[in-house]
Write a structure and sequence with these properties.
Largest sheet of chain B: 7 strands, mixed
Strand content of chain B: 15-25%
Distance between the termini of chain B: 45 Å
Number of helices of chain B: 12
Keywords (chain B): Oxidoreductase, Thiamine pyrophosphate
CATH architecture of the largest domain in chain B: 3-Layer(aba) Sandwich
CATH superfamily of the largest domain in chain A: Thiamin diphosphate (ThDP)-binding fold, Pyr/PP domains
Helix content of chain A: 40-55%
Order of helices and strands of chain B: EHEHEHEHHEHEHEEEEHEEHEHEHH
Strand order of the largest sheet of chain B: 3-2-4-5-7-6-12
CATH architecture of the largest domain in chain A: 3-Layer(aba) Sandwich
Helix content of chain B: 25-40%
Strand content of chain A: 5-15%
CATH class of the largest domain in chain A: Alpha Beta
Shape of chain B: globular
Shape of chain A: globular
Oligomer: heterodimer
Number of strands of chain A: 7
Protein name (chain B): 2-oxoisovalerate dehydrogenase subunit beta
Cofactor (chain B): thiamine diphosphate
Number of helices of chain A: 13
CATH topology of the largest domain in chain B: Rossmann fold
Cofactor (chain A): thiamine diphosphate
Number of domains of chain B: 2
CATH topology of the largest domain in chain A: Rossmann fold
CATH superfamily of the largest domain in chain B: Thiamin diphosphate (ThDP)-binding fold, Pyr/PP domains
Number of domains of chain A: 2
Keywords (chain A): Oxidoreductase, Pyruvate, Thiamine pyrophosphate
């Protein structure tokens, strides 16, 4: 593939796919999934709602209500499929783009917005959701996830860890160290790489000479490439990898082959570095349309269902917007809070001096 | 009372911590069967098993990064960085993750991780084995930074560090590992954030920590023969600083000299000099002087006796203070 060719237009041969872009169920020799009509409708609902939250966040940023936003547009299936594969006991470590996984872990979307609005750096309790805080330094969280998995091992718990990262992150030392650690300690972890083809402006060719999932073999564990726009396949492949991890079979690298339909973040301008043709080609592989087509064709949902989901999405968008705008700005003393678990003479002194200084303006 | 080397005192402290709390883990390169290159973890793997004393792959970022993950799962990892100069691959995890995660979680997360770093020169080592990187970490909010200087403190401070719910960067003076002293294994130590006056005096205060405390005590003994009564304060904690003890000392003596191995330029002594100037201005008979390394990379070991502060350079600074 040359740098100018549309990426992934011809599906790579090793791709696990259970639902085609046209909404046809296909068989795969190694992976299968049995889903009830209710489960498929529920996945569809997830996909639509997280896309709606994402669109609302982009709009909020455009209106100056968020400092920045990292859109998940196009990656909904990878995130919902893998997120719905998790049990309550499993632990997820996200990047800053896993809004769909956060949804699966019952993290209020408004809590995600807090970080991008600048009212805090995170602000949900990771232990309450088994969903760690967003990590902005690329790849750092892979080591945290492996350490956490080593803790699960020591606890003898029936659980696994999943860690998310992108194609660009695979060049980071921490990610490679985490592969080594997971391998030699046989840690119960799933490495879920969303290869969305672009690390800001750099195409995959700048990160790797081989398909990313093949990296795993060099570290001594299996790698699999899945159609990242196929929620059924993402669910099936992740479910299997998590189960293997829980059963003591060690790590798996999943490469979810997908596409970043939007900009890297709202500060980015992808027209400077990629072709419109490529985007058009990927639009035909939309993760939501194929589930809708599947539901329609198999008469698993009617028009009323789709309208109901759309209405729910609109209501959610409005709710997220209004609660985002109502987020209170933190008080200045919040600068000093939660830095240390207890008293800290230096910080206590700085806080007291600064608050006294500020109080001088109120007299 | 038991006679212990500083390394053995740390070993006994770690052993006590591991006995007291089954969540305490020790991890690092060669910490298991070998017992660490300085033998600080000697025998711990034999007694506590490979799940609690973990020989890690040779990757410092991995050591601290996975320690963070273990702490998130409820463990209290004590990481060993084999030598000061090798902490830099882990600096990203320490500075961007370990220090900031509690704030990021609005206090929901505690990260009781100890990062032990043998520091300083004086052992005739090759490059990267003699550095004093403390200022990199004292400059990072969210970390506590401490340095032990003697066996008794080593024994209690490592236990306090393990008990602390915040990340602690724990500096160990590697050239003092083999120094022996009486240690009372039953005596409670000072709280982790307190300084100690290790030699009271009236005429001038020497501030030091880690390996330079002994050098300053020797300098004070020599000065006594010349009729000068020097006070020596072992800072013990660099972040936070126990300003009460420091200010009280300088207000009594009116003069002070800060001594550390790290380069003087934007070194830890600069912070001390500024703070003492701000708090003790009208008590000072002379400016705060600093003795330390030069603004160069650490030299080859045949030159380190010229680079490292010693008794004479400390006394030279004392003379300069009195000359004002």
């Amino acid at each position: 593939m040359t740098a100018d060719a549309p990426r992934g237009v011809d599906a790579p041969p090793e791709l696990v796919q259970l639902l085609t872009p046209e909404g046809e169920r296909v068989e795969h020799p190694d992976y299968d999934i049995e889903l009830t009509a209710e489960e498929v409708r529920s996945l569809y609902r997830d996909l639509v709602l997280v896309r709606r939250v994402d669109l609302e966040a982009v709009a909020l940023q455009r209106q100056g209500e968020l400092g920045i936003w990292a859109s998940l547009l196009g990656q909904e299936a990878a995130q919902i499929g893998s997120g719905r594969a998790l049990t309550d006991a499993d632990m997820a470590f996200p990047t800053y783009r896993e809004h769909g996984v956060a949804w699966c872990r019952d993290v209020d979307p408004v809590k995600l917005l807090g970080l991008f609005r600048g009212v805090n750096h995170g602000g949900w309790d990771p232990a309450e959701h088994n969903f760690h805080l967003y990590t902005i330094v690329i790849g750092s969280q892979t080591l945290h996830a492996v350490g956490y998995a080593m803790g699960i091992q020591r606890d003898g718990a029936e659980a696994a860890t999943i860690v998310y990262f992108g194609d660009g992150a695979t060049s980071q030392g921490d990610v490679n160290e985490s592969f080594i650690w997971a391998s030699v300690f046989n840690a119960p972890i799933v490495f879920f790489c969303q290869n969305n083809q672009w690390a800001i402006s750099e195409p995959l060719e700048k990160q790797s000479k081989i398909p990313l999932y093949k990296r795993a073999s060099g570290f001594g564990f299996p790698g699999v490439r899945v159609d990242g726009n196929d929620v059924f396949a993402c669910l099936a492949v992740t479910r299997r990898a998590l189960q293997n991890a829980r059963e003591g079979q060690g790590p798996t690298l999943i490469e979810a082959f997908t596409y970043r339909m939007g900009a890297h973040t709202t500060s980015d301008d992808p027209t400077r570095y990629r072709l419109a043709d490529e985007l058009e080609a990927w639009k035909l592989k939309d993760p939501i349309e194929r589930v809708k087509a599947y539901l329609f064709k198999n008469e698993l949902a009617d028009q009323e269902f789709f309208e109901k989901i759309d209405a729910e999405a609109d209501a959610l968008g409005k709710d997220v917007r209004s609660r985002c705008l109502a987020l209170p700005d933190p008080r200045p003393e919040a600068i000093f809070q939660h830095v240390y678990s207890g008293a800290h003479a230096l910080l206590d002194e700085e806080r007291e001096q600064y608050l006294t200084y500020l109080a001088g303006f109120e007299r | 009372m038991t006679t212990l080397t500083l390394a053995k005192a740390l070993n006994e402290g770690l052993r006590r911590s591991m006995e007291d709390d089954s969540k305490v883990l020790v991890m690092g390169e060669d910490v298991g069967k070998l017992g660490g290159v300085f033998r600080v973890t000697d025998g711990l793997q034999k007694d506590f098993g490979e799940d609690r004393v973990i020989d890690t792959p040779l990757a410092e970022s991995g050591i601290v990064g996975t320690a963070i993950g273990l702490a998130l799962r409820g463990y209290r990892p004590v990481c060993e960085i084999q030598f000061d100069g090798f902490v830099f691959p882990a600096a990203d995890q320490i500075i961007t993750q370990l220090a900031k995660m509690p704030l990021r979680s609005l206090g929901a997360l505690k990260l009781p991780v100890v990062v032990r770093i043998p520091c300083g020169g004086g052992i005739g080592a090759v490059e990267h084995h003699s550095e004093s990187p403390e200022a990199h970490f004292t400059h990072t909010g969210g970390l506590r930074v401490v340095a032990c200087s003697n066996p008794a403190d080593a024994y209690t401070m490592i236990q306090e560090a393990v008990r602390c719910d915040d990340p602690v960067i724990f500096f160990e003076p590697k050239r003092r590992y083999w120094d022996k002293a009486e240690v009372d294994l039953a005596a409670p130590g000072l709280p982790l954030d307190q300084a100690r006056i290790v030699r009271p005096g009236r005429d001038l205060t020497l501030f030091a920590y880690g390996p330079m405390v002994k050098t300053c005590l020797e300098a004070a003994a020599a000065a006594e023969e010349e009729g000068r009564d020097l006070e020596v304060v072992d800072l013990r904690s660099l972040n936070p600083l126990d300003m009460g003890v420091l200010v009280d000392s300088v207000q009594r003596t009116g003069r002070c000299v800060v001594v550390h191995e790290a380069p003087v330029f934007t070194g830890f002594g600069a912070e001390l000099a500024a703070r003492i100037s701000e708090t003790c201005f009208y008590h000072l008979e002379a400016p705060v002087l600093r003795v330390g390394g030069f603004s160069t990379p650490y030299p080859p070991s045949r030159l380190e006796e010229y680079y490292l502060p010693d008794l004479d350079r400390v006394l030279d600074a004392v003379d300069r203070s009195f000359a004002f």
